[in-house]
Structures are given as C-alpha cells and as structure tokens.
C-alpha cells in the first residue's frame, strides 16, 4: 500500500499556488489539505491539519517563510522551501529543510524532492527544527515573534522591560503586557544585545534602560514599579555596565 502524505502549499501568489498544485498532481501520494496565501494562514493550517510536509515560499508579506518555521518550532512539519531567490539556500538548509526549490519549478527536481520525502519520512517525520538563531553575522534581535493561539504578536526588543525564566519558557514583560514564549532564557539572552540586557539573577534578564534603582544591593526597581531580585553576579554585571 502506498504511503500517503498530507501537504499544505504556502505562497502569497495565487498563480504560484495553482502551478505547484498542478505539478504535485503527478504524485498521487501527495494530498493537498490546505492552500495558504500568507504566514498567519500557514500557522493556522498547520495547527488544524497537522500536515506531513509544507511547501513554503520564503518571501511573503507579514511573515517570511523562515519566520513561519521559527514560530512553529518543534511543531513544524517537513519543509520544502520554494523561492525565486537562490541566495536563501544556505539559510534554508540551516533550518534542516527537506529541500529547497527554485522558481520556476523544474519537474525533475520536484520528483527528486518527493523521492527524498519518501526516504526521510519514516525516520525523520518531524525533521524541521528551530531556526539556528545565533548564526554568525546575524546580529542581535530587534524584535520577537510570539504566538498566542492563532494570533501573532511582534514585540520590539526596545519595548521589553524584563524577561523572567520559568522552566522551558520565558515570560516577557513589555509595554505593560505579559507574553509567554517557549524558549530557554540562556538562548534568548545570547541573541540580545549584552550592553542593553543584563542578567540580574539566574531567572531574570533586565533591560537597563528601564532600571530605576537598586535597593540595598538586592532588589532592582524598574521604572514601571516592578521589583526583581539581584544576585551578587548580577550586581557586578550592573556595576560593570
């Protein structure tokens, strides 16, 4: 019995979606379960259909293909990036994508991609991993993408007052709001400007622009009134800044 694979197509151009679907019709084992015109639609489709593979355009408005993969994290299916721009190839494979196809599609290359899907599916169904977030030359983050169910919030790093660690999650306090993101504090810290964000305590990272004062060397008081514990090493980091 032939193994069937559920798939979604994500591209902001209707003609591109239709063209890819025509090409995929040559492979009866591929069942298209959703067609998406942008990143938010793709996030909802993955949550609804739990597809085996996602054919994903890279350059799209609102969210790029790479940002879609980042937001999905460990929930991402296998990903085949499709784009007209070959300069994204290295970045695509850094996400452990199944394949990377250039527009206009070459039917022979697509056939190779489907063969690769067959080879890898059983052993690596969930092969797409989080984007490598600290790539050399990338620079520090200027914003965070945070999911709340099907909503997407884009939080400027400049608006973050402090970040607290809770198990495998970080609690981000910005603009008077509270956001939760599944990520280790240490990893997030490595992607933020160390001249701005200081580790006050093993569980707290503070934006020094929001720091009002230190009380008795043990409590950091922020401009919004928040009070955070300060360890000895955290106090030294503040004094050295």
Describe it.
With 241 residues, the protein is of the alpha/beta class. It has two domains: 5-121, Response regulator (Rossmann fold), CATH 3.40.50.2300; 153-240, OB fold (Dihydrolipoamide Acetyltransferase, E2P) (Beta Barrel). The chain has helices at 14-24, 39-49, 65-72, 89-94, 107-121, 185-190, 232-240; strands at residues 5-10, 30-36, 53-57, 78-83, 99-102, 143-148, 151-156, 160-166, 169-174, 177-182, 197-201, 204-207, 211-215, 219-222, 227-229. The strands form four sheets. Strands 2-1-3-4-5 form a five-stranded parallel beta sheet, with helices on both faces. Strands 10-9-8-12-11 form a five-stranded antiparallel beta sheet. The longest helix has 15 residues, at 107-121. The chain starts with a strand and ends with a helix.
Q: Helix share of residues?
A: 25-40%
Q: CATH superfamily of the largest domain, called what?
A: Response regulator
Share of residues in strands = 25-35%
Largest sheet: 5 strands, parallel
Give the tally of structural domains. 2
Number of distinct beta strands: 15
Low-confidence stretches: 124-137
* CATH topology grouping of the largest domain: Rossmann fold
Radius of gyration (CA) equals 21 Å
For the record, the CATH class of the largest domain is: Alpha Beta
Taken from the alpha-carbon principal axes, the silhouette is elongated
H and E order:
EHEHEHEHEHEEEEEHEEEEEH
Please give the count of helices. Answer: 7
CATH architecture of the largest domain: 3-Layer(aba) Sandwich
Spatial ordering of strands, largest sheet: 2-1-3-4-5
State the secondary-structure class: alpha/beta
State the end-to-end distance: 65 Å
**Rounded mean pLDDT score:** 85
